[in-house]
Specification:
- The complex is a heterodimer of chains A (131) and B (597).
- With 131 residues, chain A is an alpha+beta fold.
- Helices cover 35% and strands 20% of the residues of chain A.
- Chain A has helices spanning 7-19, 42-46, 49-62, 101-114, and strands at residues 33-39, 66-72, 84-87, 94-96, 121-122, 126-128.
- In chain A, strands 2-1-3-4-5 form a 5-stranded mixed sheet, covered by helices on one side.
- In chain A, α3 crosses α4 (101-114).
- Chain A is globular, with a radius of gyration of 16 Å.
- The model of chain A has no long low-confidence stretch (mean pLDDT 91).
- Chain B has 597 residues and is an alpha/beta fold.
- The longest helix of chain B is centred in the last third of the chain and has 18 residues, at 459-476.
- The N and C termini of chain B lie far apart (60 Å).
- The radius of gyration of chain B is 28 Å and the shape is flat.
- Helix content of chain B is 39%, strand content 15%.
- Classes of the chains: A alpha+beta (131), B alpha/beta (597).
- At the A-B interface, α1, α2, β2, β5 and β6 of A face β1, β2, β7, α5 and α6 of B.
Chain lengths: 131, 597
Amino acid sequence: MKKIKSPAELKKLRDDLISGRKPSSNADPAPGSVRIRVHMGTSGIASGAAEIFNFFITELEKRNIHGYVIKTGDMGYCFAEPTVEITLPGKEPVVFGNVDKFKADEIIEKYIKNGELVDGVIPANYQTISI
Amino acid sequence: MEEYQMQILVCGATNCRNNHSSDIVDNLKLELEAFALDKKVKVVKTSCFGLCGHGPVVKILPDGTVYTGVTVEDISDIINEHILKGRKVEKLLYRDPVTGKTLTDENQLSVLKKQLRIVLRNCGIIDPENIEDAISRGAYLALGKVLTEMQPDEVIKIIKDSGLRGRGGGGFPTGVKWEIARKNASDEKYVVCNADEGDPGAFMDRSVLEGDPHAVLEAMAICGYCIGASKGLVYIRAEYPLAVKRLKIAIEQAREYGLLGKDIMGTGFDFDIEIRYGAGAFVCGEETALIHSMEGLRGEPTVKPPYPAQSGFRGKPTNVNNVETFACVAPIILKGAEWFSSIGTAKSKGTKVFALAGKINNVGLIEVPMGTTLREVIFEIGGGIRGGKKFKAVQTGGPSGGCLTEKHLDIPIDFDNLTAAGSMMGSGGMIVMDEDDCMVAVAKFYLDFTVEESCGKCAPCRIGNKRLHELLEHICKGHGTRADLDRLRNMSVVIKDTALCGLGQTSPNPVLSTLDNFFDEYLAHVEDKKCPAGKCRDLMQYVIIKENCVGCTACARVCPVNAISGERKEPHYINPAICIKCGACMEKCKFDAIVIR
């Protein structure tokens, strides 16, 4: 990566990332794909999030689903770790808690493939500021 | 496969469960079957919506309508009107008490949600090991703005006007701290981030560093620009390996992108950050001890003044701020001092992150505006006490703080209110206790910690805390007297007044606050030689209730010291002189015949 030479360049990079001119794992998923965030801070990893992260990567490939899996920090839902957030194109992100391999499988088969929610949804109980 | 056309989300969290949400789920499923809709409409159980004051909450997808205060009787209305005819059930919509307007979907209802994420804005959203993720969420924009459009004094004025106070515990105004460091002229100055989070049960800073390290790096560079420093140091405990790893990656990536290092963003400003490791000593959270530890000396505090802003790291002016304080800086610069100071109470602005731990349902991290009450935090966001037990106390501020009780639940949380109530904000750990916790034992637990963590430099802390601990041990063993309680209080006050640093000055707080709020429990220990919560082993006795005992001999067979005697099919008896109180008999008894007295 070339160094950023001015605040204007930084803004441009940000705009490119948001608009999709530059590929970004944080961008909204394109039609036909899915974005999966696995929350992997210490408490997530301690509850087995790393295994779930790998499970999603291998299973998406096996089941021919286009999408990307990202590891992030924790959301603070320590009571329900591991947690994952699934974003389908054009939809609000949905967070699922207490995800083990069975739950992950159910999420892929039901929610990712058909948009059908499964038990264990954690509704967003907060507002976030945007910058 | 059948496609579901609609989905009904029902809050299944404990709070709403108490309001019969599981009945709602069952009845919804039954009614849907009756209408042959069960293949078209799916019922999904969720965890807390954060609208617990208005529960149980039911949300209908795809239109996103949210119904509040739903009862089993309302189910037929929801199905007849909403599901079949597509009309919203007006009476179940939330009505704003002021305007009288109905709020229909979750976006509109978000104003009712108690949590606001400023510090945690990117946690769980960005990949902390990918700087472009952070940039797409606006990281380093504030740094760019500060370096090109603002003078250091302007930035400091914004921070002062915003009312931001140090989140590490002391609550000192951040802008004033920066100003003092700026005014002390020197050839070199340092910006230090205090990530030595040591309170038992606190993990706010760790989560920020693991989830959004760039927020801290950016703010350190802004601080460096303001006070005239070109070097930043993060003091972090080596027992946070993941946070250290992500921080290292973040620093490297920021350098690679020209956002740290020489000539940042082409503005000519140089600032670089290094990591210093701590070995996890609690006292090193105190800024002078922290600086000594970074210099390679023993982690012992020194008397202030001189303050680090005058003479800190290597004798140069040094500004020390906590992780969470730094994480507030960029949004303040971008959104303005007025925006930040509009959140919170008169003297405490913005939000505070709390780590909820102990006997609470939703253990985890929350961020709420200052002024939120303890009741809202514990019973709404935290989901109440685990196992439906009774709330007894909440310890805020870690070993330096105090225990707050039922009567404090409605005070708005801020720096001054918590101090007035005999506790403190501290770094944000909140440990919730229920009726099974003995408050004398809790005070002893915290003293255990401070005795262990005292650096030993000053006598009040080294010797005084040890004596306090011995007294508490004495009382828990049943050897205490009324005079011991006075001794506890007197000694606590002396330690508070004479100890060298913050650790010693606050270490008797758990004792004082439990003495104030739970004096009865202390009295029971010293006068009746009883522990009301049944926690202090030496004060309890296992007793067999004759009426319940069927004489099955199971307890006698499991007792490792043969303290239980009795004929088969006759009530048994436990000899207290032999009993070692291991509890094995109580576990074995199927007839609830053994109790603790």
